[in-house]
Specification:
Low-confidence stretches: none
Shape: flat
Order of helices and strands: HHHH
Radius of gyration: 16 Å
Strand content: under 5%
Helix content: over 70%
Number of domains: 1
Number of helices: 4
Structural class: mainly alpha
Number of strands: 0
Largest sheet: none
């Protein structure tokens, strides 16, 4: 079990499950409504898992930082899409 975590293979297995989930959502949500926010959510989670895998396997700090930045961008895109769908424009001004 130690090798499964130390080598990052557990993350590989989880990423395969995320890909299967994304495929299932694409097939199911094609008729049910907006899919992009869900895919952004999955992309954010997958990017976090890639950052964890890089950290577990001794990856370079820039790879970890890049994965974290991608996760943040995907999360921001999801929030923007969900707020827009709710009829509220996203607030870009940090001061009310």
């Amino acid at each position: 079990m130690d090798a499964l975590f130390a080598g990052g293979h557990i993350i590989d297995a989880i990423l395969v499950l995320v890909a299967v989930e994304a495929l299932g959502l694409i097939l199911w949500r094609r008729r049910a409504g907006p899919l992009l926010p869900l895919l952004c959510n999955l992309a954010s989670g997958a990017s976090l898992m890639l950052a964890l895998r890089a950290a577990l396997t001794g990856g370079h700090w820039s790879a970890i930082a890049g994965c974290l930045a991608l996760a943040g961008l995907a999360h921001g895109a999801e929030l923007t899409l969900r707020l827009a769908a709710a009829g509220r424009p996203p607030r870009l001004d940090p001061h009310p």
